[in-house]
Amino acid sequence: MTTLGTTPVGATGGISTDTSRLKSAENLKKAGEKFEAVFTGMMLKSMRKAKLADPLFDSKAIDTFSEMQDARVAQTMAETTPLGIGKAMTAFLAKSQSDLNTSVADPPK
Q1: What does residue 80 show for φ and ψ, rounded to 5 degrees?
Q2: What span, in angstroms and rounded, lies between the C-alpha atoms of 24 and 8?
Q3: How many CA atoms lie within 13 A of 11 on its CB side?
Q4: Residue 37 · residue 30 · CB < 8 Å
Q5: pLDDT digits 0-9 by tens, 84-101
């Protein structure tokens, strides 16, 4: 098998059908954290759109900085103080994959 960039390419020229990496408890946990970060980021973006008043200093640079700040806050929230939606998704997916350890759904202590 060869690689094209970072995507493995099979002998047929398509994307590899090797799904063994998907059955890793660690990968499932990471996916849950990323899902939580995306969800939180969308929530923060919606909150920013609901402006109650016009800002004093409004520019494209401030908008860009706010988007970057929201993305970092969402990532940090997902890692340190999750809302629980990523954990719920991880637990649901772990149930469908019987060979995964059930401790994936346990909260960190």
Answers
A1: -105, -45
A2: 18
A3: 0
A4: no
A5: 888 888 888 888 776 655
pTM above the 0.70 mark? no
Two tokens, residue 2: 């060869």
Residue 74 token pair: 């969402």
Can you read off the two tokens belonging to residue 23?
A: 């059955």
For the chain, give the percent of residues with pLDDT over 70: 67
Are 75 and 67 in contact by the 8 Å Cβ rule? The answer is no
Give the residue from 102, 80, 96 showing the smallest Cα distance to 36: 80
Here the tokens at position 89 are 């998704």
pLDDT tens-digit profile of 28-61? Answer: 888 888 888 999 989 888 888 887 777 777 788 8
DSSP of 48-73: HHS-SS--SS--HHHHHHHHHHHHHH
Segment (H or E) for 9: strand 7-9
Residues in the chain: 109
Which amino acid, residue 52?
L
